[in-house]
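Q: Give me the 3D complex with protoporphyrin IX containing FE.
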Amino acid sequence: MQTNLSQPSYIVAAVSFVCYLVFKRAEPSEPLPVLSLLLGVPALLACALAWFSLLPAYQYATAIPVVFASHWALLLSYVLIYRLSPLHPLARFPGPLPNRISKLWMVWVNRKGGQWRHYYALHQRYGDVVRIGPNELSIRNVDAVLPVLGTSGLPKGPFWTNRNPKGSTNALIMQRDPVEHARRRRPWNRALSTASLKDYEESIVLRSRELLDALGKRQGQVMDMSMWMTFFTFDFMNNMAFGATSELMREGRDVNGVWQIIEDGVKFTGVAFLVPWAAPLLRMLPTSVQALLQLKSFAQTSAERRLERGCEKKDLFYHLMDEEGHETVRPSQPVVISDSLLAILAGSDTTATSLSVLFYFILRHPEVYKRLQTEIDLAFHTEGEGKEEAEDPVDFAKMAGMPYLNACINEALRLYPAVLSGVQRQIIPGSGGKMIGPFFVPEPANMFIHTYSIHRDPRYFSPYPNSFWPDRWLPSSHRVDFIGASSKVSASAQSDFVHNTAAFIPFSLGPNNCVGKNLALLELRAVTCHILHRFELSFGPSEEGVWEMEKWEERIEDYFTVIRPPLNMVLRSRK
Ligand code: HEM
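A: Here is the predicted complex, encoded as structure tokens.
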């Protein structure tokens, strides 16, 4: 049989192949080019086939649906064949079949926020590098940390591409160009320098006292501590960013609904993180449009009020507006507003998660609770020690030097870092590839260090990598063995001890790392000291009564940032 290349089927296959190459090379994400390639091309093709009489007359009616269906099926087949073929640059990295085909699979896997467990299981099964998407790797190896995240590491990945409507301002975290990012980061560095942090200490103390008052009024009742931690961090960040007062703690509820909008947006971000091309579509949903408008108006109003009041004390706004005149070109107001909003979004939930995790583990481990409370009581005297009033934990230098407190905080950050699955980076396009520790990774590849997995790797944290054992952060002379350890394990604990802090990256590393790290640590220390100094804590019943509070951690959901289940506790004043 002779092959006739002018046959319609060959023409459709060839045109679809060209469209596939355009998709592959140019990776269009704007609606117009995408729709043109998906709808415009087959429509034109069907018309052309009919026009040039390449189809028998009786087939004209069916030409359009047939060409459309063939075009889409062919596009899908080309994609599938390439992604699974040995020719794909990432073909030699192991990973499950559905992951290699499409990241849409991860959208399904993560429908209930379980991606942190999924990636952990994949690393247990496949090793240090897993292909978790057609062009994406998850890495669990300490030698890869600096090449990915360090000073000479990789730039931010496509997740951070600006897909906002034209004309809108991008916050610092969205700056993928390292030069532009460094320029935008300068005022942030000044705002969160050691000297500037002193200016926020007073606000942390005041907000901590407000928290104690609010909790004190509700003692004896079951309270969701996770929610209260959010109220604290949100009120504090609002004050720190805009010098504003926010009333979540005073009211004991989300007064203007802003927090709910942020919570609702977490799942949206989770999907956008997995399939960034879907972000503009998701943003078109009526609920998203509404939420974005409300957030914008919240930021705008806060900024306007801040501008009316003027600078009462040095807040983040003061530094971002460059009121000291360090920069030759002062940042525009929209940039400052979007960055101030970023501070609230990036600084509230993460710190509230870390505090919740910390209180959860302290309650799960009574021996830790006792030691920590004793350290706090020794540092800040309690009522009745010859003193009329308990001493407020307001000395931040003292808190920074409390070994067990800081060990507990680090251990909470190790077991459940607030950004559980890490941050995306990309091999620089056109570079050909890069040695990532022991592995050569070709382009195009996105990757992240899976923080949850590397933090629990026994090669870096041993013994008891999955247990809350703050003593691993103490010098050996002060280390007490894990209470749950069998005597055999405990005898070998010292000789088996591994503590590789190069694998500890809750705040990430390098030029893009968390700029709020030191501020977060101040908050974590202050809130922990204030609460344990004033109250005795115990677990309350779970809301549905069907799961034990002791299993709280299993219900954490990971959508880039996390959603926490209620952490019910009962607090009573210590006397
Ligand atoms: C325990 C609390 C916190 C944790 C675990 C945490 C973690 C992180 C992580 C993992 C990143 C991504 C860094 C990267 O891409 O390499 C990040 C970025 C960021 N965080 Fe935090 N964060 C915390 C608290 C805060 C606070 C209190 C602020 C307040 C100012 C803040 C502001 C930011 C900002 C602005 C960025 C973007 C930095 C950039 O792109 O240059 N974070 N954070």
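A quick observation: The first strand starts at residue 129 and ends at 133.
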